[in-house]
Amino acid sequence: MRIAHEEARVRVPATTANMGPGFDSFGMAFRFYDEVSVRPIIGVTSVRVEGVGEGVVPTDDDNLVVRALRAGLEAAGAPQAGFEMRCINRIPHGGGLGSSASAAVAGLMLARGLLSDPRALPLDSVFSLATSFEGHPDNVAPAVYGGATVAWIEADGNPRSAPMPVDGSLPVTILVPPPATRLSTEEARRVLPNSVPRADALFNTSRAAVLMLALAGRPDLLMAGTEDRLHQEYRRDVLPGSMAVMDSLREQGYPAVISGAGPTVLVLARLADQTRFTLEQHGWRVLVPGIDTQGARLL
Ligand SMILES: Nc1ncnc2c1ncn2[C@@H]1O[C@H](COP(=O)(O)OP(=O)(O)O)[C@@H](O)[C@H]1O
Ligand SMILES: N[C@@H](CCOP(=O)(O)O)C(=O)O
């Protein structure tokens, strides 16, 4: 296998994970993208970052996208090179919209785009490599395949995923709090207990099944289908502002959940203008991106 193209470009969607009861398994992709281009060069790797992470993320071989690209080339049996990369980043880092999963998927897709034969790195390998790289198949699956997905780990340790049917008219609103409240996924996982009461496990099992029905076209089930007892409450102390917004929205009848490990809040509904205005007055970004159905795409 060899690098056969002078340039590759990719766009990868932001994703939400959990969606309330589907902890570590449910995910969905949004029409809100990072875009990355890369050129193989003779020389030292350099990364130009525009937007989110500019001046913060590494601009050399330590960059997550470059590391994933190298892992993809290695998996396909292709030689390494130096790289000139340009990242246009929109997905907030540590925001609960799967930025690290999208970055890993971007690098692997770029490897696919540079190869003489992309079949050497099939999409399913992009999914499993990105999962081993980043650790969250619930974000990686929608980033790779688009739409809503359920992901799980097989007994042999391999990640799997399958699409979940979603009513195309389902409205989604994403509430991104001010940047000062960013929270790394690692930190948000440290506060989770190792075991949970059986009643709570049963509660989430039923709610996850209800959410599947709700997504597929039963909006009357969205409130019940977005209840959770496995992660959100345990994270309250590290997500006080987001939990308060989620609680308030739910009291008003909106099916609101914490997106991924937070602090972004996901609402499976359209907000009333006044509610939107109030959030914006408090520094929240209110996005209505729509559901991405294509997943990561080479451009
Ligand atoms: N586009 C990117 N380029 C380089 N590094 C990134 C990129 N996106 C995410 N990362 C890395 O991943 C970290 C955020 O990952 P994480 O804590 O899992 O939050 P989330 O995935 O919810 O945004 C960032 O602080 C950064 O180190
Ligand atoms: N299931 C994970 C999802 C993490 O998503 P992220 O977008 O916050 O990285 C969790 O809840 O920890």
UniProtKB/TrEMBL annotation:
Its EC number is 2.7.1.39. Pathway: Amino-acid biosynthesis; L-threonine biosynthesis; L-threonine from L-aspartate: step 4/5. Its main location: cytoplasm. The keyword ATP-binding applies. Residues 63-147 form the GHMP kinase N-terminal domain. The keyword Kinase applies. SUPFAM superfamilies: GHMP Kinase, C-terminal domain (SSF55060), Ribosomal protein S5 domain 2-like (SSF54211). It catalyses: L-homoserine + ATP = O-phospho-L-homoserine + ADP + H(+). One of its GO terms (biological process) is threonine biosynthetic process. ATP binds at residues 92-102. Pfam families: GHMP_kinases_C, GHMP_kinases_N. It is found in: Cytoplasm. Residues 221-272 form the GHMP kinase C-terminal domain. One of its GO terms (cellular component) is cytoplasm. Keywords: Amino-acid biosynthesis, ATP-binding, Cytoplasm, Kinase, Nucleotide-binding, Threonine biosynthesis, Transferase. GO terms for molecular function: ATP binding; homoserine kinase activity. It comes from the Bacteria. PANTHER family: HOMOSERINE KINASE, HOMOSERINE/4-DIPHOSPHOCYTIDYL-2-C-METHYL-D-ERYTHRITOL KINASE. Belongs to the GHMP kinase family. Homoserine kinase subfamily. Catalyzes the ATP-dependent phosphorylation of L-homoserine to L-homoserine phosphate. This is Homoserine kinase.
